[in-house]
């Protein structure tokens, strides 16, 4: 059963690496884009990390070791941001951002489509489907409002 916990930790490390790439690259664009990206990732990460913690507990980790392992996956974010900064072109940040932001955005869209949409399509209760779609729209609205301020 513990193998599922280790697989979750690996996936979380890779996820955090892409978050680090996105945050660093967005700050290379501008402070506003960087803060917007950081806010979006924080809003995503808080419930995500709580869910990952529950997965680790279910996989047989005790609370302290699950917390330590969750904290260790955060190093993936630091490595991702360092990679983005080190990958800067001598010609400027524009060339770096030209591939990092589309790469991370595409990854986030892929994960959403692979994980969220099938669950929405399998939902039997129409009211639950409506609630989930409204929450998705709320998230999009929040991001639009943040980008306008």
TrEMBL record:
Q: Which UniProt keywords apply?
A: Ion transport, Membrane, Transmembrane, Transmembrane helix, Transport, Zinc, Zinc transport
Catalytic reaction annotation: Zn(2+)(in) = Zn(2+)(out)
The compartments listed are: Membrane
Where does it sit, as one GO cellular component term?
membrane
Q: Which Pfam families match?
A: Zip
Q: GO terms for biological process?
A: intracellular zinc ion homeostasis
Q: How does it sit in the membrane?
A: Multi-pass membrane protein
Q: Which residues cross the membrane?
A: 99-117, 129-148
Q: Write out the GO MF terms.
A: zinc ion transmembrane transporter activity
Q: Give the record's family classification.
A: Belongs to the ZIP transporter (TC 2.A.5) family.
- Protein name in UniProt: Zinc transporter ZIP13
Q: Which organism is it from?
A: Eudromia elegans (Elegant crested-tinamou)
In the UniProt record, what gene is named as encoding this protein?
Slc39a13
């Amino acid at each position: 059963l513990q193998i599922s916990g280790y697989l979750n930790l690996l996936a979380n490390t890779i996820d955090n690496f892409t978050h680090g790439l996105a945050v660093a690259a967005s700050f290379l664009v501008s402070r506003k884009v960087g803060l917007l990206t950081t806010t979006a990732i924080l809003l995503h990460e808080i419930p995500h990390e709580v869910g990952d913690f529950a997965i680790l507990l279910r996989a047989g980790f005790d609370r302290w070791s699950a917390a330590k392992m969750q904290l260790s996956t955060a190093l993936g974010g630091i490595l991702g941001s360092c990679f983005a900064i080190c990958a800067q072109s001598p010609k400027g940040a524009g060339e770096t951002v030209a591939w990092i932001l589309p790469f991370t955005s595409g990854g986030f869209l892929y994960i959403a489509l692979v994980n969220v949409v099938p669950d929405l399509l399998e939902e039997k209760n129409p009211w639950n489907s409506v609630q989930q779609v409204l929450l998705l729209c709320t998230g999009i609205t929040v991001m639009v409002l943040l980008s306008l301020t």
